[in-house]
Every structure is written in C-alpha cells, then in structure tokens.
Amino acid sequence: MVLNSTNFLSWEDVIGFLRNILFDFGPKLIIAGLILYIGFRLIRFLCKKINNLFEKKNLDKSLRPFLMSLISILLKALLILTVVGYLGVEMTQFTAILASAGVAIGLALSGTLQNVAGGVVLLVLRPFRVGDYIAAQGYEGTVKSILIFHTTLVTTDNKIITLPNGALSAGSMINYTQMETRRLDLVFDLAYGVDLNSVSNAIISIAKEDKRILLEKDVVVIPTISQAAITIDLRFWTKTDEYWDVLADINKNVYDYLVKENIAMPYSKVDIIK
Known about the structure:
Elements: H1 11-56, H2 63-86, H3 91-108, H4 110-125, E1 133-136, E2 139-146, E3 150-154, E4 160-164, H5 165-170, E5 173-175, E6 181-190, H6 196-209, E7 220-225, E8 230-239, H7 243-260
C-alpha cells in the first residue's frame, strides 16, 4: 500500500493552524492573564481593608484569621470562574467537569476537608480562643492562631506546633485559661524523722504569706508515706494569669525554709556490691 503524500499536513499547514489559534485565542489569553493578575492584587488589597475593618470593630481574634482565609478563597474562586466564562467555556460544561473532578478531589483531600469542617466546629463551639493555654494531641502551648486548616500553638520554650483542626475538634483537650482561677499542687519529699505537723504548718504559713493566694479557698497539706520518703502535697488556689509566677515563688520559698531549718530531704542511694 502506497501512501499519498497529500494525506499528510505540510509544515505550512501546521504553521497556519497555529497562527489561526494564536490570532483567535491569543488576545483572549493575554487579557485573561491580565484579569487574573489585576484580580489577585485587588483581592489582596480588599483582604487588607477587610482585616483592618475587623480590627476596628474588635472582632474576636479567634474568628479573624479563619474568616480572612475563607473570604480570600471565595474571592479567588469567583475570579477564576469569571475568567473561565470570559474565555468562552460554557458554564454547564465547566460545572459538569468540576462536579466530576470534585468527587475525585474530595476523596483525595478527605483529610483536608475534615480539617475545614473541624475549623468551623472550633469557631462555633469555642473550646478555646487565641491566647488560651491548652493541652491537646500530646502537646501544650498558647494558641497563636486558628486558621481554616490548622491551629498553631506556641510552647513555653517558643516552639511553633501545628495541629490539624479535624483531629483537634474530635479529640480531647484541656483548657488551662478558660477559668479565672486555678489550683496549684506542689509536692515536697521529706526524709523520715521530721516533725510532720511543724513542717506542714510552716509550709501552709509560707503559702498564705503570698498575697496572690486566694485565701477564700482552703490551703491544705496532704501527707503521704511511702517506702522512700514522706511526701507533702501542698494545695491552694490562685488567679490563672498568675499561676506560673506563684508556682516558681512558692517552690523557692519552701525550699529556702527547708534548707534554713536543716530539714532533711531524701536522696537517691546506690549500693555497690563487690
């Protein structure tokens, strides 16, 4: 079988075809690119203005980053749909393509969609806010931001922890800041032979001397006897925002008292058998 050379496109035909596409769609593509460029810059400008408005209205810091992320995504999606319509793509066909792709994308990004839903749950139920000190998913820290996909914490040693909203909203957490007051439990180990009543009363007095202690609630000492030591558990209440300072000061004051009065504290003993 012999193929006729006329059955093949010549280079002139290919170049002519590409030229027609360039002249027909080139201007539209250039204009579409300009629309996208200007549109993204305009969206960035609008988001800054909206964020400034939220700040003036004193909108909750927990809501602000989430709403800004949501507004930015919606505006960008609207811009892309506008450009697609300008290029002449029929919206019914485009919608069908999006629906088909949405199923596959939804399956692939099920975890991401779960995080978005989790973010909504966190903002509606508000188990914590920006600035609260929480413990969740095995981590502790101060809430820095609640975004559309994740929440960030700052630890006491200034590390950033990112927690997915899906797991955070579905799991257990402890909020140390939500209540105005908080109880401190300080444990001190003493050697056998000490005057337990005298030491207990002295430690209670040390705690009560601190004006940050809430005296309307009891200051108590609970002794426990073990094989190695006598353990004294000092319990009292203070304001949540003063918790860490009171913890450090009372620990130091009790230690200074024990050293000054020569009250023995247990220590580890290692027996070497030859």
